[in-house]
């Protein structure tokens, strides 16, 4: 799954979001692994537009897109 960064206000927020999204959480009944996210950063100053997100290739295991937007960064900051 792609994890696309659309908020570039704070690199520390992005690092926390990546850490949280890929964290491994233990479970009593079976071993857990972190999410298989492929981080995507855009060279555009404010991140990709909705149209560009829709146009991203999604082949095989990259069939879905998650977006790390301003709300994601704020929530990650709040819970860290």
Description:
This protein is of the alpha/beta class. The chain has one domain (2-79). 34% of the residues lie in helices and 14% in strands. It has helices spanning 11-21, 50-55, 70-79; strands spanning 2-5, 38-40, 65-68. A 3-stranded parallel beta sheet has the order 2-1-3. Helix 1 (11-21) crosses helix 3. The longest helix is centred in the first third of the chain and has 11 residues, at 11-21. The radius of gyration is 14 Å and the shape is flat. The model has no long low-confidence stretch (mean pLDDT 78).
Give a topology summary.
Elements: E1 2-5, H1 11-21, E2 38-40, H2 50-55, E3 65-68, H3 70-79
Parallel strand pairs: 1-2, 1-3
Strand arrangement within the widest β-sheet reads 2-1-3
SSE string, helix = H, strand = E? EHEHEH
Gyration radius over CA: 14 Å
Poorly predicted regions are none
Number of helices: 3
Fraction of residues in helix: 25-40%
Strand content: 5-15%
Which properties best describe this structure?
three-stranded parallel beta sheet; 3 strands
What's this, in brief?
The protein is built from three helices and three strands, in the order E-H-E-H-E-H. With 80 residues, the protein is of the alpha/beta class. Helix 1 packs across helix 3.
